[in-house]
Amino acid sequence: MALSLRKLTSARKSCLFVRQLTSIRWKTVLSSFDDKSLSDRNYFQRVIGSDVPHKMCQNVSLQHFSISSQPESICWAGSCHAVLLRKLGIALKDHQLDEAWETFKDFKRLYGFPSHSVVSRLITELSYSSHSHWLQKACDLVNLILKEKSDLIHSDSLDKLSLSLSRGQMPIPASMILRLMLEKGNVPQLNVLRLIILHMVKTEIGTHLASNYLVQICDHFLLLSARKSNHAKLIRPDTMIFNLVLDACVTFGSSFKGQQIIELMPQVGVGADAHSITIIAQIHEMNGQRDDLKKFKGHIDQVPVQLVRHYRQFYDSLLSLHFKFNDIDGAARLVLDMCRIRESPSIQKDRNDSPKTCLVPIGSYHLREGLKIQIVPELVQKDSVFKMDGKQELVLFSNEKYVLSNKALAKLIIAYKRDDRIGELSRLMLDLEKELGTLERGGFICDVINACIRVGWLETAHDIFDDMELAGASIGSSTYMSLLTAYYEGNMIREAKALLKQMRKTGLLADLSDEMVMTTCLSDVLDKNRMHTRTSTSIGKSGLAECLVREIKKQEKAIRPVVYEFNSSIYFFCKAKMIDDALRIYRRFQEMKIQPTVQTFIILAYGYSCLNMYREITILWGDIKRSMDSGSLVLCRDLYEFLVINFLRGGYFERVMEVIGYMKEQNMYCDKWMYKSEFLKFHKDLYRNLKASNTRTEAQSKRLEYVEAFRKWAGIN
């Protein structure tokens, strides 16, 4: 008996368990175990810790853990608190995430959260995992801690977690961590934030969240700046971050969001470099804002020769807008300017000169309250992740100079022919040949003539022939023969004789009679067509004829130039807050029976929003729905989101849920966090204590219904 007591005493001293437990503590511990856990020896051993021998757990009966009203001291060498912490530390050191997570849960069940250093180690270790399972657990843990004990987490741990989430293509939880940090007034260090944004914008949803987060950072910066806080400069994003988001907006077609972000740059004092300018050019092109883009041209034309290649995309976008506005004169001037850029003496600068900073207005020059964005056209970041090539549609860069693509030439030909200005087309071609130094060889003038012949524009081709003869330009015999053969094929004998007469004046076919020429052309027509096909697909402007055919078909479905003109005018008036003038232009759409575009509605909604005219936006929403129901309009995410935000601000919750319903139907991601923040900013206590039974009117009852529906959807308690 005495020996048994000594063994029991020795066991108590050697087992690393709780030194002293009150009955109250053990009631808490035991109450946390369910029946299965109490009967599960392995579970009980895990709670105690792996350092406690299994045999000791068998020898020490549960009868020693008294749950009587009197405390009982059990003087063992260690405590459960220390054992669990030690076990957690070893698991983290050995990167055993399963063991660490289970031990952490056991510790929290008994004692709550451990110290911030332990929590930070756990979050960091989870962040280093490449599995979404553990990354999501880390995210959930952060969310829980911030609700219960927010001082436990330092921003360094959250930086690592948000980076890991974004790298693991989990943009939604990544944005949640970033926003939780921002609520505490913290933003990751710039080098870390750049990497986070870089990974987020690889997907459409990530781009959507990254752009909204950037807007929130800027809003917070402006708030701190207004308070003269020194912390403001610590959270201001830099040019690289703006470039990353803007480039993604271009990639995923979020042009209105891109425009909003561009306007934030001057507000927070961030300048635009060479990369920014090319991205801004694409956004202006997507939005049809030609006047805004033209303001950059004078500065871009002056960049040094070695930087000319970087601005190919800028000229591509500007030329595209000239075509959309049917400004053929503007397009012609731009084409000639591009060809002369290389030789301009004004751009021969010393490389040692510091980059020049310029200011470019956003909106009209005449706006008194307009913004001005700071640009540095000569600044190209060496460590940039951007490729300056972009899409090559209209302007190419070859042999250190700009050249036109087949598509650009096709658009020029179509525009001049549509306006019956073939003579001006010929003069432009001659000027381009002179600038490029290819006038003696005929260059692409012959390609233009051949393309017109192949699409059946024989009269146009002949007119260009006449203009070239008057100018003394050289035209190859094969081009003459192509037109002559086309005349004979079309049984246009009179035109063929006139052309044959012109050819003989130049010394061609002087020894052959008219009949012999016609017989030769008609008998050899199939071979010539095959030869022409092989030649035109391999050299020179080979695909010009095919491109001309494609562009002719596109013209039938293209947005009319007058729409771009109207939208441009509406944009100007909305920027100037002259909403009545903007509406007069909008009504002209109806008068002329022209369908407004998504851009039209975005600009008008923006104009109303600037004046806090939320009721008018609900009326505009009616017009939008009618256009959608008729099948003539398909909305984009930018407009849907802008409507939701403004309906929330105005308190039109039925409209809010209606727009969200449309977004759900089209499987569009809804940024609940942003909508929730907007609601809490304007309607935090709205109907908080009002019950449906206590409403006074049917309208109030209905509004309460939609407010509660939004609260439930957004997760607002």
Helix content: 55-70%
Average pLDDT value?
83
The Rg value, from CA coordinates, equals 37 Å
- From the helix content, strand content and strand pairing, which structural class follows? mainly alpha
| Terminus-to-terminus distance | 63 Å
The number of helical elements comes to: 37
What percent strand?
under 5%
Largest sheet: 2 strands, antiparallel
Tally of DSSP β-strands: 6
Low-confidence stretches: 1-78, 530-541
Spatial sequence of strands, sheet with the most strands: 1-2
- Overall morphology: elongated
Summary?
With 717 residues, the protein is mainly alpha-helical. Strand 3 (358-362) and strand 4 (371-375) form a beta hairpin.
Which secondary structure elements does this structure contain, and how are they paired or packed?
Layout: H1 2-14, E1 20-21, H2 23-31, H3 35-39, H4 41-48, H5 54-59, E2 72-73, H6 80-93, H7 97-111, H8 116-127, H9 132-148, H10 155-167, H11 171-183, H12 190-200, H13 204-226, H14 232-235, H15 239-251, H16 255-268, H17 274-287, H18 290-300, H19 312-324, H20 328-340, E3 358-362, E4 371-375, E5 395-398, E6 401-404, H21 406-418, H22 422-436, H23 443-454, H24 458-471, H25 477-489, H26 493-505, H27 514-523, H28 525-536, H29 544-557, H30 561-575, H31 579-591, H32 598-610, H33 614-629, H34 637-650, H35 653-665, H36 672-683, H37 698-714
Antiparallel strand pairs: 1-2, 3-4, 5-6
Helix pairs in contact: 6-7, 8-9, 8-10, 9-10, 9-11, 10-11, 10-12, 11-13, 12-15, 13-15, 13-16, 15-16, 15-17, 16-17, 17-18, 17-19, 18-19, 19-20, 20-22, 21-29, 22-24, 23-24, 23-25, 23-29, 25-26, 30-31, 30-32, 31-32, 32-33, 32-34, 33-34, 34-35, 34-36, 35-37
